[in-house]
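Lecture notes, part 5. Sequence design as translation. It can be helpful to think of inverse folding as translation between two languages: the language of shapes and the language of residues. The source text, in structure tokens, appears below.
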């Protein structure tokens, strides 16, 4: 594992670059070894680097990562969301999730989902648990090839962006003042 990034010098969440792939691979591999995440081949990460955001500091150390995988004009998946295990529970995962959701909204997507072993984290971000079968393109693309398919412990969670956008818009509108 790479050196521990200093959370107090976390400077930005930004689009991942090719130079970030080894750190992304290291974090994902750590959680895959613990059977918390599925492994991702290094070549797959290089091919999909444009889908990733990373949380980093001024020294270029990566504290966390997450990807937004587009499926169609209305649907995307948050995947490979993880934080350096030495600096968990400091809000980095939530910040990455918020940025990924903002990116999804900027594309005009309606729904974002994730398969996760920690649905309670996503529930705090507004997601709700749903049946995995609601996302057949994910099941056909990834799940059927997975060696854990018949004994999968991941839960599907989703967030309807159109309803959250309306809620935020309603809350942001100024209230009428009566004279």
């Amino acid at each position: 594992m790479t050196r521990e990034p200093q959370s107090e010098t976390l400077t930005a969440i930004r689009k991942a670059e090719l130079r970030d792939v080894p750190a992304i691979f290291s974090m994902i591999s750590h959680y895959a070894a613990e059977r918390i995440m599925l492994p991702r081949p290094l070549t797959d990460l290089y091919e999909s680097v444009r889908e990733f955001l990373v949380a980093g500091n001024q020294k270029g150390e990566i504290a966390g990562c997450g990807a937004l995988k587009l499926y169609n004009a209305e649907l995307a998946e948050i995947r490979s969301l993880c934080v350096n295990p030495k600096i968990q529970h400091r809000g980095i995962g939530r910040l990455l999730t918020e940025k990924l959701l903002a990116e999804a909204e900027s594309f005009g997507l309606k729904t974002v989902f994730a398969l996760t072993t920690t649905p309670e984290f996503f529930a705090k971000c507004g997601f709700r648990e749903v049946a995995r079968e609601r996302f057949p393109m994910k099941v056909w693309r990834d799940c059927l090839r997975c060696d854990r398919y018949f004994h999968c412990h991941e839960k599907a969670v989703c967030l309807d962006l159109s309803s959250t956008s309306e809620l935020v818009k309603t809350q942001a509108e100024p209230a009428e003042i009566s004279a």
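The translated text above is only one of many valid answers, since several sequences can fold into similar shapes. The beta strands are 10-15, 52-57, 62-70, 75-83, 111-116, 128-130, 155-160.
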